[in-house]
């Protein structure tokens, strides 16, 4: 219906015209809506949240909880979400609907596609969810997602034939506790020069020190005796986990989302193998695996048929020797220790590149109109993460765009020139890994490796391409993909 293509509005009131406004409108017409609307309000505000186990940090959250309340739509429905910014200290915010190919003025990326939502004001997002799948949402300002501002977004397909009895959303997060300032302040300190930092100094602020520790761990360094203190599954610490209760034999669809800012997880369910069915919302040829590597911003749907007993769902933090935990309870038995390591974690850890797109969503890679080389550059010493050597400039966000044209089949060659790996996320589109790999919008590019992806330029506008390590992205490993 025509009202579905109305643009959102904010109390700021300024309509934004992107350079390709007419093309955006044309692309929007192609989206077929059901005409149904779901309306909600999301209030971003300081809150004391309960992570279980007596852990009750004061942080920022949507409607007083982390994760925020799940949003669930049917494909074709219009979401009308009013965000009310009650954050302190004149902190502006936005919401990015991670993975959804919507119109760019609803994509939540200030200042490129909207004006940031000022403290004390509201903004209404309105878009048609035109592809089913597992998504999440978070602010696209600073590293606000790392304070707990995130929630799952599920788009159901009423026509889907996937055989299952129930589902369980599994949201992973690395928790930076004890942050006195905001992560944005932490980040500012990081950017000012990690190189000259005295690792032993106690006056540097706990949070920065923790981030250092986490990053050092990823590098395999030994400075990592200070770590993210908690890894959360569905907002619960491992000593007081979330529990899925069901009957033996139930076929459950797990929708696994990594909302962490700085941590990839190896995910396994003790006593079970996982059948992978979707990557970032798109179907793959089903594949049974022991465990999955889930990078920041990635999502996997898997099926499991539950055994009889009590089973640990473990999210092992990559390089950090710590884990998140949830439990599946279908029978009697005692709960495992919080640090349990199911043997499935010793099996093959499957990554996206080992999967294949389902036949009906596979792109033919033979036809490529243009190739862009996306070099991932920088290092820990200077914390100068960038794309093609130029850090993204938040004050000049349209500089150095990667230019594409509507109708092109675009190939991106990610070339990782660094010793860390980077989950690279493209807004507004899904790409395919290689000639027959899965469709995704976020994929890990391993150190010193190359990854080629393909997508159809079918959604005119301006779109971010960035590392979903929140700190790398903010440091400048981000670029603007713009339609000519
Ligand atoms: Cu989930 Cu540009 O981000
Ligand atoms: Cu990165």
Automatic annotation (TrEMBL):
Metal-binding in keyword set: yes
Cross-referenced InterPro entries: Cu-oxidase-like_N, Cu-oxidase_2nd, Cu-oxidase_C, Cu-oxidase_fam, Cu_oxidase_CS, Cu_oxidase_Cu_BS, Cupredoxin, CuRO_3_CopA
Annotated Plastocyanin-like domain residues: 53-159, 231-315, 373-483
Assigned keywords, A-Z: Copper, Metal-binding, Oxidoreductase, Signal
Biased composition (Low complexity): 1-8
Record carries keyword Magnesium: no
Region of interest called Disordered, as start-end residue ranges on this chain: 1-18
One Pfam family linked to the record: Cu-oxidase_3
The organism's place on the tree of life at top rank: Bacteria
Entry-linked PANTHER family: FI03373P-RELATED, MULTI-COPPER OXIDASE
Protein name stated in the entry: Multicopper oxidase MmcO
Species for this entry: Streptomyces plumbiresistens
